Amino acid sequence: MSKSSSSCSSTCKDFPKEIPSYGDIGGIGVALAFIVTAWMVVVVLIGYYLTVFDPKLDPFRKEGTQKLSRYPNSIDYSVHELLQKIPGLGSNGGPRSARYLRLGAMLNACILMLADLQIFTALSILVGAYASMGCEIVAYHWQYMIYLAWLASVTHLAGLSFLRNHLANNGVKCYWRLAAMFFIQSLLSAAVGLATHFGDDPWLKSGGGRPAICYFKEHTEVSSNSFQSAVKIIILLVWGFFIRVAKMFQPFEGGLRKCAAQLHKKARNQRYETYDRNEWDFRHGIFKNVKNLWLGPWIIATLEVLSIQLDLFTSFLAEVYWLLFSIIWITIRLVNLRNLGNQDDSKWTFGQVLPVFLLIAPFATAVETFCSKQETPHNQEDPVNNDDIRGLGHTHTSGYRGVFFLGVLSYIEIGIYFVLSQRKAEGLAAPLIQIFVSVFAQLELQVFWVVSDLWLSNSRLNRTLKRTICGFVFLLLSAMSISANFVYQMVKNMALSTYAHG
User: Fold this and answer.
1) Is the dihedral of CA 451, 454, 457, 459 positive or negative?
2) Which residues cross the membrane (predicted)?
3) Over the stretch 437-464, which tens digit does the pLDDT of each residue have?
4) Strand (E) or helix (H) holding 79
5) Domain ranges of the chain
């Protein structure tokens, strides 16, 4: 039974120094159930992307059909072309074989069960923690609960992306899951906000047995590591929930895809206008000549980069990546935090064995679905006119591939920044400034790459020299992209050191 908060007034000053055992949250079986489930979802999503996913299909098509998308995602299309060169990977875009149908059904059944399971596990641990907010739960277990609930919420949000086509055809199933996830995200965000009161070390060392509610009554230290971690977690919570919920609805994702296609079309038209008249035309005014000859490449590059960035934002590849690095970061934090806990939480009692055995259910459902006979669906749908489908021939150009690589590199850098723990607290402003500076710098490098590629492709240099210069410029921009964050950190550390000694 939880004690009332009013009985904790004396306990806030008189408490055990060691972290107590609390198997309902910190138990080894509970932790493994959450971690294994999350990584199962990661493996299933990666397997789906590598084997079954077809970027040319409309994600909001009717179930059992193969209607082509009017605005296919160029990023997923490019990756899909590479996967097709590897035996056994990628979909050929034609009618699906019985094996692929069974594999798709198996993955669908597995992820549906795992995702729904995480709704109730997340609600259980969050409600249980709030109910134990009196003297029963200490700050350590409150922070531990946040990581477990976050694992569950990330798992379910990833499942929503995976089940987008299924949920688009079943409105009731979609809406109750979204409502449940909104409630979970609200509880989790509030829990993260309360955790900013913990500060840095006392609740893990000398104050391990102090109830969490005692910290909630104290002032928040903005310069503490716990505040910085909370800021990062809230950013990721809001970002992950927004992007995945928005992608559940066709007007949002379809609108972004259409916008990306229109930006590319404008860039293509501007390219024709610029390079069809590569000399000064006295029939036009000075402004139009300057625009076509000197500003034209920069306009083209800006439109192309914005188009590719929108495609990268809406790609399934980006969703898989954000899920992967989120799970890695949470798992690292959870394992590091667990190593500081009470060793009694690692004992295998009945309450710890049961959650692990319950993990067998998704595997059994998946195997049963794969082994069952399935009737091949009728792939009949009102076909989309091929003339209305966005052309993707530009994905083979060096300009596109360079921006794609630099864009992926920027995503990796942002992921590394979140995953790696910072030794010194940075508060709220420093992490956000670093992210915005990094994003702006990456976009500038991508625009410069497209401009360089345009100038080289339209120059009169021989082919070998063009390739040499192009390769050198690309390596230079890649090196600048990688070193941008290191330079920022070095300058920031020098400024902090100067301020401290001043």
Assistant:
1) negative
2) 25-52, 105-132, 144-163, 175-198, 227-246, 293-310, 316-336, 348-367, 402-420, 432-451, 471-488
3) 778 888 899 999 999 988 888 777 888 8
4) helix 74-84
5) 21-248+315-382+392-396, 398-502
